[in-house]
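Lecture notes, unit on protein representations.

Consider one protein chain, 332 amino acids long.
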Amino acid sequence: MNAPENAHGLDADPTHRNRRPLVSLIFPAFDERESVDGMLDFYREIRAEYAKFDFEMIVVDDGSTDQTAEALYAGAADGDQVRIISLSRNWGSHAAITAGIENCAGDAAITLSADLQEPLSAIGDFLDEWEAGHDVVWGLRSVRAAKKGANDLLATTFSKVLNTNSVIPTYPKEGPSQILVSRQVMEVIRSMPEANRNVLGMIAWTGFSQGRIYFEQKPRPYGGSKWTRKKKIKLVLDSFVEFSTAPLEWLGTLGFAMGILGGVLILSALVTAFTPASGVAGYCVIAGLVLLTGGLNLFGLRVLGEYVWRGGDDARRRPTYIVREIRDSSDK
C-alpha cells in the first residue's frame, strides 16, 4: 500500500520525513541573454538564504534568438540544479509557464520573471504561506517599478473586470505578478487541455486554499519588456472567452437597448411623417441608425465567432507548446 501524503502531496512515510521539500523556480525567458548571469545569481541567493528547502531552476526558453539557452547551460556551475527547456518557437509566456509546470519535479513551484524584479524576501513569504497550508499563493505588487500610465490603468481595469465578471472570483483584482502552486494544483493544470490559455486564471479556477503576499517590485536591471500590445490583447481575449460569458451578456443588453431606441424612433418618424416639418433630417437619423445597427450586428458576430473558433481550437487538441530540447546542468 502506498504511503499517505500530507496536505502538499509530500510523502509521509517515516523513512522520507527528513527529505527537504523541493521547490521549482520557473523562469519563462524570451531573448533574455542579458539577464542570464542575474538569474543564476538569484537562484544561488535563494538556495543560500532558504537552506531548509531544495531548489531546482527551470528556465523555459520561449523561442529566443539571442542564445539565451546556450548562455544558461554554459553558466550553470557544479552543484546547480538547472533544467533548460527550449521550445520550438515563441509560444507566449503562459504556454512557457505551462511547460515549466509540466516538466518540473518540485513539491511546489514558484513562477519568477527573467527581468529579476522580485526581491529575495518575496521567496520567503511565498514559502511561509505554502507551509501554512495554502496550495496557491498569489504574488501581488504593492509598489510597481514602472511609472503609472495608460498601460498600468488598462492592466488594473482588466484584472478588476475579470474578477467581477467571470467564474474565477479568486483572481486578484490587483493583477497577479508571480504565483506559487503546490504539486496537487500542478497535476490539475496538467490535465486541462485549453489551447488558448491564461494559466493564472486556470490556477484561480482550481480552487484550493489560496493565500496572498505583497512585495515592492524592483526596477528592471536589464533590457526591456517583451510583453507586446498584441500579446496583451490576446491574453484579454483568452481570459474572457475562457472564463466569462460577460461579453455575450453585454451584447444582449445592448441589443435590448437598441430595440427600445428603435421603437421610440419609429414612433417619432410616424409622428414626423404627418407634420409639415418632415424632411431630410428624419431620414438621416433613420439611415444613421440602420448603419449603427448593422455595425453592432457585425461586432456581435465577431464576438460569437471568437467563442466558436476557440471552442474549435480546443477540440483540435493541438499541443499548448512543443519542446525542441531539454538540457540539465547535471549532464555537463
